[in-house]
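[agent] plan:
  1. take the single chain provided in the ticket
  2. run structure prediction with default settings
  3. attach structure tokens to the ticket
  4. add a short note for the reviewer (M.T.)
[agent] executing step 1
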Amino acid sequence: MPFDLANLEIAVQILGLGWGGIFIVMFIIYLVSLALGRIFPPSEDE
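[agent] step 2 finished; step 3 output follows
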């Protein structure tokens, strides 16, 4: 099986997009959770 450097470059680009997308989604979820915490603060009944 021959080794093609062009395919490796494309694979690394796809890998970077995948990991980048995962971290962007995690960051968005974090920001939404912070916003919800400020909009609906926890009650201090105790």
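[agent] step 4 note for reviewer: Helices lie at 5-39.
[agent] ticket updated
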